Structure formats: structure tokens, C-alpha cells
């Protein structure tokens, strides 16, 4: 396989399918050249193979010869030679990975200039000033980008020169001064590197190519890949291309153009251009640009040609494209195109519009496929509408949406301030179930510790509340925090964007969260596509959340965590009384009180989800979570002394203390020890169902036993559930009882349950994969402990390709799921299968769950639209 390909190389497949080899920019340049026949300055691409070979074993053998051959071809095509003293060829060296990547090496323009060829350029253009300006720019660009020198080294002599010649603007500096500047720039290079500035264009070229290769492993590029989940082993391609000059004269210029508006999605061209300018001048914002429409008056023929090209690009790529173009002395050149990035709003509008395009159109499946989860996130949540003036830090983007409010440092203070009508941001090191009231009252949540599955992150996502977590630079002490040199006191206004992780001082303007009408259209199409193949449910624990989830399109509840009902302020004392009970009678009395409370909760949920399945998980967490912490009580005992009741709580907390509670007495194990507890929960649930029936509703109940390990254990638990169901239903007239629809199943969240799923299915009507615990136990990673430092080190070093708590680990945890699906269905072909872990809202995981044969996924209510879209994309 060769390492280099000319833009007009005859590939066997369309270049666009060769992005892995040619990189995005190279593939598009080849496509424009050889498939579309557009005016592209000739050049060639050095493949990602060459980059990978270089990164592994140094400069690849044979690459020099190939490059020399390509350069000769290019020289022939252009009728000019690199380094020629009379009429030199100049080239640009452009990096271009498969995915566009900030942090990679910048483009080097005007390569090939040296002490001789600069004279040729001056003669050819009859413009000495232009030639020497290009030369001194090239030396400084090469010095900065390729040789890694500090840009200030070049700025200082330039300022000095301007002063000496008594001019203000760069453009006024004369040719002679520029010639001298080129000399002093060369001295800067020689002094700083110990080597003279390379005069041989072949050396210049090799240096630039190596710098592009090397930039693949630059710190910024690596960090970007981790965040965007781009594999580290792709490598980048390098494009070497003949220069065209938009800065030649007033009949020249350069610009960027979109085939439609990337912000709104509106049809019609959009962009900016500059007369007599080169390269990045347009994006750099140095000069005021003109709108693309001004091209119509200034260069009517070029405008017409460009609009023709835009139409062809859209038809060819069947999508919106962005372009970079240059006009040299009245001739149009295309320098780049690609399917353009767009906002969420624009993505929705374009996808729908393009199904009705004249001449060419996309199908509804394609339209659904073009909208990404991020796009929906953008229109569902507000975001920063401007760059923050005072960015404080960047933490983990834990829950999308932006918020502005006054900083408060405890849940109580936040709740109190919110009560007074203030917009509040809760700032704490981390959160726990005891902080929930303060979290609810806040516009947004900022924590300095914890990862993407920390309590704060999970709860905030569930409510659709903005959160930035793990902002390690934030040092909290009492009622203030510092970041770097800035201190933020209680009541100071801060802003955060949970979609980007940014935290800023003061008020940042926000965009609105109002989905455009195309949002509804796309989701309707998505639902039609996935109908009967993959359902989407929500995780919800109370009536309002369930109703909210249904609004978002949830087709049932995949996980109702009953412990959340126990944690409410008015319930906790009853739960504690149950735990502290000395006699069976006391325990029963407490359970009876809980039953009444839970029944009301269940009625509300079943009503909100009428005629849709509701999976209720029996109590799962270890009991100590309902008790005060032993440390707190021990401290109080040593200082103020304890009341009688507190003495008992302390004794209970000590006796329920476990070294490893997540692997301790929880889930069904708790049921084995306190069987009355599960019976009470089922009684409450079934009585609620009967009440709904009598009210004319259609309750569909699925009772779920958590943390099953063996068939025997599940058989025992199923017995309690079935007995209690029979007990409640037994009193009913047959006509009513027959209408009750009850399934009994289990979570599959331990590796053993997954491996022995065939046996376990004998006792289960359904499985719901609890992939959070399953991941934790399969990896042996404590979810709350590995998220911060360890996980980022693993991702940066490529030890893990993905955070397995965000995206299902297909080869390991996913294999267990697949095996359990097979085992379970072998025993019970009609076994209903779903997933209720955080993965249920992750598009890539959803795709996997569909492929292994699950019937539904379940996620937090705000994630439901994204899951509906992802489910449709999985099915397509
Ligand atoms: P990026 O990926 O950062 O956009 P590019 O490789 O596209 O970098 O180069 C940046 C700019 O340099 C282009 O927009 C274009 O204006 C200019 N440029 C690159 N190659 C050439 C060329 N062969 N002739 C003229 N200008 C060029
Ligand atoms: Mg570009
Ligand atoms: Mg679990």
C-alpha cells in the first residue's frame, strides 16, 4: 500500500469512504477533485498509515521517495518548482484526521519560500512587499508551529520595526523593512534552535509533516479525544497542496460559506468573506468581514459559480456542507468542504426540510439518523448564549442545561434562600440523599468532587437539572469557595453550563429551551420506526415524575425505586421505628404505617401510567442508609450526650454497620431477613392496583426483586410476592380479579445471575438488567470511587476505550447480558427483557441492547426523547 495519494488518484472506492485512510479533509479534497470535478488546487495526501507507522517506529522507509515523486508531479501540474528562484511553487501543509480535531497542528502556509524563491515570488507578482511579507510570515509561522518557538520572539522585532519606520499598521510596513525582518526572524530561529532556518524546501516539508504527525499525541489533542470518545489509534493524515493567493490584489479574496444557515437551519447560503486576504484572516476576526451575499455585487460571476457549486455539493452529499474558498485574481478555488456542523435547532430543521427537497431528498429514516443526542439536548435545555466573561473553571458536564443563581453552600441554606424567591446554585463538595431538598430548590448544582455517576450527577440528570460535578479547582471552605485567585462568597452570582462543564462568575446570558416544531416531527417518525421493536420506559419514583415521563413519551416505568418513598421527611421516622422494633407487634405496627403511605404513592404512579407497565422494585439499599451515621451520633454522645431514642439509633446503626454495604445485606437478602417488609410493599402495591381498577383504570404491575443471585432465593421471594398478591386479590370478585395484570420478575445485576439466567428464568416472568451494579461487580470497580482520577487516567492511556459506567462494555458486561438473554429465553421463550441502568439512556448502549434482543430500555424522564431517537436509530 502506498503512503501517499494525489487528490486526483483513482481510488477503487469513492474517497469519502476512505476517511480512515485519507482523513476527513483529504477525503473531501479528493472527492471534490476526482468525483465532482470542482476547481481545487492540486495536491496530495499522506495517509494515516504513514502517521501510525511514524508514531510506532519513526520516519517510515520509502516515504521520502514517495513524497519526492508526488512533489515532482505537483510541480509538473503547476508548471512551477518548489524553491525556484524565478517562479516558485508554494504549498500549504494541512493536518486532517478522520474527525476534525482542535488541538492538532495548525496549517503552515507559503511553504517553499527561502532566500532565493522569495525573489522569484517578488518578480512574478511584481510585488516585492507581498513577497517579503509572505516570507517573514512563513518563517514565524514555521518557527511557531513546526519548531515550537514562542510567538513573542517574532512579535517583538516586528513591533520594533514598526516603531523604527514610524508606522502604525502592519500594512504600512515597507518592503525593505520586511526584508530586514525576514533576516532577523531567521536569526531568532538560529539562536533559539541552534540550527539555521531550513532553506531547502524538502527539509521544510519534512519538518512540517513530522510536526503534524507529532501533534496527534499533543496534550490538547489527547484531551479532546478523551472527551469526544475518539480512539487514540487512528492517527492523522497530512495534506500538501499548491497555494493560491487570496491576498494577491483587490480582485482576490477568501471566505467561508455554508450551503444553509448552520445556526437556524434556514435555506440559502450563509457565510463571510474578505477581499484581498489570506488564510485564517476570515476566522481570526482581525478585519471586518463581509457577508457572503455581498459577493453577488462585488464578484457577480464568482458568486454565480459558487452558488452552482453549493447546489452540487448539497445534492452530492445530500446534506448541508461548509466550505472554504479563495479567489485569486478573479478565479475561484475550493479549499475545503465537509458536511457541516450545526446547532440542535438547525439539525432538526434541516433533517425535516431535506425530506421535502426538490431534485433530491432524504428518507424519513435518514432524517431521523441525522439528529444526534446532543442536538436534542441542546433544544431541550438552555445553554450559555455567549462566551462567559469570567470563566472560573471547567468541571465534568454531568447534567445538561445552564443556570444562573446565587451561590449557597449547604442544602438548608439553598432551600431557605430559594424560599425567599432567590435563584440559587448549590455549591458543595458532594451530595447525599440528605441534600435532596436543597438540590430541588436550586437552579443548578456544582460539586467539587465526584464523577459522572455520583449522587449529584445521577439525581440532577433524573430531574433535568443542570449540574457540573468534580470541579476539582473549586476549593470550598465554609460559606465561600476559591478558584485560582478568585473568591466567591455566599450570595455571589455564578453561572454554570452542565452541557459543557463551564462555571463562570456573574450572570451569563442563556439561550431558551424551547424545542422547535421539527422536534415533534422527528420524534414522531422515530416512534413509527421503532414501533414494536424497542420500547422506551422511564425511571420514576412518584406520580409527578411519572406524569412528566409520560409527557416525554415514556411507554411505562422500567424502574420505580421504592426506597425513595422511604427517605421522605415524614417517612424516615416510621422506617426507623420499623428497624428499631423490639417485638413483632411493634414491627408490624410500623410496617402498617408504611403500607398506608406507600399505597398512596403507588396509586399516583399507576394513575399517571395508566394502561402502561410499571415495574416496582422492592426495597434494595442496605438498611443503614435509613439510619443516622454512627460517627455523628458517637460525636454527639461524647459531647452533648444522647437521648434515649438516639441511644437506640446508635445501637441499631452499629449493629447494621457493614464493611462493604454495597455487597452486603441489601436487595433480596434484606427480604430474607425481614420478609414482612416485602410483603408489606406488595400489599400496598396490589391494594393501589385494586383501587385503580375500581376507579376504572387499567393498572399493569410488574413486581421486581433486586439483587438476585440464585434460583432458590428468587423462588423464595417469588413465593412471598405471589402469596401476598393472592391474599389481596382473593377477596375480589372473579370479574375484577381477572382484569389484574401482574408479572413477577427480577433484576439481573450480579454476574452469577447472568451466568445462571437459564435457571433463574424458571422463577421470573421478566428480567431487567441492572447494568450499573452489573458493571460494578463485573469490573470490580466501585462506581463511586473510580470515577475521578483513576477513570481519567485509564481513558487517557487508552486502557479503557470508554467509561463503562456511561457506555456499556460490550465485550465484558455486555457479553453477560447477551448470555443471560439467551439463557433466559431458552427456559422461557416469552421472557420479557429490559434494562434500567444509566446505560438505558446512552445511545451507543441502546444500540447494543437492541442487537442482543431486549424489549425495552428505561432511563430518566428527561432522557426519554433521546432514548426514543436512539432506539429508532438502532432499529434502522
Ligand atoms: P483548519 O482545519 O484549521 O481549517 P486548514 O487546513 O483548512 O485548517 O487551513 C486553514 C486555512 O488556510 C484555510 O481556510 C485556507 O484559507 C488556508 N489555506 C490552506 N491551504 C491553502 C492553499 N493551498 N492555498 C491558499 N490558502 C490555503
Ligand atoms: Mg479549514
Ligand atoms: Mg442495583
Beta strand %: 15-25%
Which parts are unreliable, with pLDDT below 50 for 5 consecutive residues or more?
none
Q: Could you tell me which ligands this complex binds, including any ions or cofactors?
A: adenosine-5'-diphosphate, magnesium ion
- Please give the largest β-sheet: 8 strands, mixed
Domain PEP-utilising enzyme mobile: 422-501
Family: Belongs to the PEP-utilizing enzyme family.
Cofactor: Mg(2+)
Keywords: ATP-binding, Kinase, Magnesium, Metal-binding, Nucleotide-binding, Pyruvate, Transferase
Compile the SSE list and pairings.
Elements: E1 4-6, H1 19-35, E2 43-46, H2 48-57, H3 63-78, E3 81-82, E4 88-89, E5 91-97, E6 108-111, H4 117-125, H5 128-146, H6 152-164, H7 175-193, H8 201-215, H9 219-228, E7 236-242, E8 253-260, E9 267-275, H10 281-284, E10 290-291, H11 295-298, H12 300-317, E11 321-328, E12 331-339, H13 344-353, H14 364-370, H15 373-380, E13 391-394, E14 396-399, E15 402-408, H16 411-419, E16 424-428, H17 436-441, E17 444-447, H18 455-463, E18 467-469, E19 475-477, E20 480-483, E21 486-489, E22 493-497, E23 502-505, H19 517-530, E24 535-539, H20 543-551, E25 557-561, H21 563-567, H22 572-580, H23 584-608, E26 613-617, H24 630-639, H25 644-656, H26 668-673, H27 675-694, E27 700-705, H28 711-730, H29 734-737, E28 741-748, H30 751-755, H31 757-760, E29 766-769, H32 771-779, H33 783-786, H34 789-796, H35 813-827, E30 832-835, H36 843-852, E31 856-859, H37 864-875
Parallel strand pairs: 3-4, 15-16, 16-17, 17-18, 24-25, 24-31, 25-26, 26-27, 27-28, 28-29, 29-30, 30-31
Antiparallel strand pairs: 1-2, 2-7, 5-6, 5-7, 8-9, 8-11, 9-10, 11-12, 13-23, 14-18, 15-22, 19-20, 20-21, 22-23
Helix pairs in contact: 4-5, 5-7, 6-7, 13-14, 13-15, 13-19, 14-19, 19-37, 20-23, 22-23, 23-27, 24-25, 27-28, 36-37
The structure holds adenosine-5'-diphosphate and magnesium ion (2 copies).
Residues 41, 92, 94, 107, 109, 241-244, 254, 279-280, 324, 326, 335-336 line the site of adenosine-5'-diphosphate.
Amino acid at each position: 500500500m502506498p503512503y501517499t495519494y494525489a487528490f486526483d488518484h483513482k481510488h477503487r472506492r469513492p474517497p469519502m469512504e476512505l476517511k480512515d485512510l485519507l482523513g476527513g479533509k483529504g477525503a473531501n479534497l479528493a472527492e471534490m477533485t476526482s468525483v465532482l470535478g470542482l476547481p481545487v488546487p492540486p495536491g496530495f495526501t499522506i495517509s494515516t498509515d504513514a502517521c501510525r507507522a511514524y508514531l510506532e517506529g519513526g520516519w517510515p522507509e520509502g516515504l521520502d521517495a514517495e513524497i519526492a515523486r508526488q512533489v515532482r508531479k505537483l510541480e509538473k501540474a503547476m508548471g512551477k518548482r518548489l524553491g525556484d528562484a524565478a517562479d516558485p511553487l508554494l504549498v500549504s501543509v494541512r493536518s486532517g484526521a478522520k474527525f476534525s480535531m482542535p488541538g492538532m497542528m495548525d496549517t503552515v502556509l507559503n511553504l517553499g519560500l527561502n532566500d532565493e524563491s522569495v525573489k522569484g515570488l517578488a518578480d512574478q507578482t511584481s510585488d516585492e512587499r507581498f513577497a517579503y511579507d509572505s516570507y517573514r510570515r512563513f518563517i514565524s509561522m514555521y518557527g511557531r508551529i513546526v519548531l515550537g518557538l514562542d510567538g513573542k520572539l517574532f512579535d517583538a522585532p516586528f513591533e520594533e520595526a514598526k516603531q523604527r519606520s514610524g508606522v502604525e499598521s502592519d500594512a504600512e510596513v515597507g518592503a525593505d523593512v520586511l526584508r530586514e525582518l525576514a533576516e532577523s526572524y531567521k536569526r531568532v530561529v538560529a539562536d533559539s534552535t541552534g540550527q539555521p532556518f531550513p532553506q531547502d524546501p524538502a527539509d521544510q516539508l519534512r519538518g512540517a509533516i513530522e510536526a503534524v504527525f507529532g501533534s496527534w499525541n499533543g496534550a490538547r489533542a489527547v484531551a479532546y479525544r478523551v472527551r469526544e470518545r475518539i480512539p487514540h489509534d487512528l492517527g492523522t493524515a497530512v495534506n500538501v497542496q499548491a497555494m493560491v493567493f487570496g491576498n494577491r490584489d483587490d480582485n482576490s479574496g477568501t471566505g467561508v460559506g455554508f450551503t444553509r444557515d448552520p445556526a437556524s437551519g434556514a435555506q440559502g447560503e450563509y457565510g463571510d468573506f474578505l477581499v484581498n486576504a489570506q488564510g485564517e484572516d476570515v476566522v481570526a476576526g482581525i478585519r471586518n468581514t463581509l457577508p457572503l451575499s455581498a459577493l453577488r455585487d462585488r464578484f457577480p460571476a464568482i458568486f454565480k459559480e459558487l452558488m452552482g457549486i453549493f447546489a452540487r455539493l448539497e445534492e452530492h452529499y445530500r446534506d448541508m456542507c461548509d466550505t472554504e474558498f479563495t479567489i485569486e485574481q478573479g478565479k475561484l478555488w475550493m479549499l475545503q468542504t465537509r458536511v457541516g456542523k450545526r446547532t440542535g435547532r438547525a439539525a432538526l430543521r434541516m433533517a425535516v426540510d431535506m425530506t421535502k427537497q426538490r431534485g433530491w431528498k432524504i428518507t424519513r429514516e435518514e432524517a431521523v439518523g441525522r439528529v444526534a443526542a446532543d442536538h436534542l439536548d441542546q433544544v431541550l435545555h438552555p445553554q450559555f448564549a455567549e462566551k462567559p466573561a469570567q470563566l472560573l473553571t471547567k468541571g465534568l458536564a454531568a447534567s445538561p442545561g445552564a443556570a444562573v443563581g446565587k451561590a449557597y453552600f449547604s442544602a438548608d441554606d439553598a432551600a431557605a434562600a430559594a424560599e425567599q424567591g432567590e435563584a440559587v446554585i448549590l455549591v458543595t463538595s458532594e451530595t447525599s440523599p440528605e441534600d435532596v431538598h436543597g438540590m430541588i430548590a436550586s437552579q443548578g448544582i456544582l460539586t467539587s468532587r465526584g464523577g459522572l455517576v455520583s449522587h449529584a450527577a445521577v439525581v440532577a440528570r433524573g430531574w433535568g437539572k443542570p449540574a457540573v460535578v468534580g470541579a476539582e479547582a473549586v476549593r470550598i471552605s465554609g460559606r465561600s469557595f476559591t478558584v485560582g485567585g478568585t473568591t466567591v462568597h455566599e450570595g455571589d452570582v455564578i453561572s454554570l453550563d452542565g452541557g459543557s462543564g463551564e462555571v463562570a462568575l456573574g450572570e451569563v446570558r442563556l439561550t431558551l429551551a424551547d424545542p422547535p416544531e421539527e422536534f415533534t416531527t422527528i420524534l414522531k417518525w422515530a416512534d413509527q420506526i421503532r414501533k414494536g421493536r424497542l420500547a422506551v420506559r422511564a425511571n420514576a419514583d412518584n406520580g409527578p415524575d411519572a406524569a412528566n415521563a409520560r409527557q416525554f413519551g415514556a411507554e411505562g416505568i422500567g424502574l420505580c425505586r421504592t426506597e425513595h418513598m422511604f427517605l421522605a421527611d415524614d417517612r424516615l421516622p416510621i422506617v426507623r421505628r420499623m428497624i428499631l422494633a423490639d417485638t413483632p407487634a411493634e414491627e408490624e405496627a410500623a410496617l402498617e404505617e408504611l403500607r398506608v403511605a406507600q399505597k398512596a404513592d403507588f396509586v399516583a404512579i399507576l394513575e399517571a401510567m395508566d394502561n402502561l407497565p410499571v415495574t416496582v422494585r422492592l426495597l434494595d439499599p442496605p438498611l443503614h442508609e435509613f439510619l443516622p451515621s454512627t460517627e455523628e451520633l458517637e460525636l454527639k454522645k461524647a459531647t452533648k450526650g444522647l437521648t434515649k431514642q438516639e441511644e437506640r439509633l446508635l445501637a441499631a446503626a452499629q449493629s447494621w454497620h457493614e464493611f462493604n454495604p454495597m455487597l452486603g445485606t441489601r436487595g433480596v437478602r434484606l427480604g430474607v431477613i425481614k420478609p414482612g417488609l416485602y410483603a408489606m410493599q406488595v400489599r400496598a402495591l396490589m391494594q393501589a392496583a385494586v383501587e385503580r381498577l375500581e376507579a376504572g383504570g387499567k393498572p399493569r404491575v410488574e413486581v421486581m426483586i433486586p439483587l438476585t443471585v440464585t434460583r432458590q432465593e428468587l423462588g423464595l421471594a417469588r413465593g412471598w410476592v405471589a402469596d401476598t398478591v393472592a391474599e389481596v386479590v382473593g377477596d375480589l370478585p372473579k370479574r375484577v380479579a381477572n382484569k389484574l395484570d401482574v408479572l413477577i420478575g427480577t433484576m439481573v445485576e450480579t454476574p452469577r445471575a447472568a451466568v445462571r439466567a437459564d435457571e433463574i428464568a424458571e422463577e421470573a416472568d421478566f428480567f431487567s438488567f441492572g447494568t450499573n451494579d452489573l458493571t460494578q461487580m463485573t469490573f470490580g470497580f466501585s462506581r463511586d470511587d473510580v470515577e475521578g482520577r483513576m477513570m481519567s487516567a485509564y481513558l487517557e492511556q487508552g486502557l479503557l476505550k470508554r467509561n463503562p459506567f456511561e457506555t456499556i462494555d460490550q465485550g465484558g458486561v455486555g457479553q453477560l447480558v447477551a448470555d443471560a438473554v439467551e439463557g433466559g429465553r431458552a427456559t422461557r421463550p416469552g421472557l420479557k427483557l429490559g434494562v434500567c441502568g444509566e446505560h438505558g439512556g446512552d445511545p451507543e448502549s441502546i444500540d447494543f441492547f437492541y442487537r442482543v434482543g431486549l424489549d425495552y430500555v428505561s432511563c430518566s424522564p428527561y432522557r426519554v426523547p433521546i432514548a426514543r431517537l436512539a432506539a429508532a436509530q438502532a432499529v434502522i
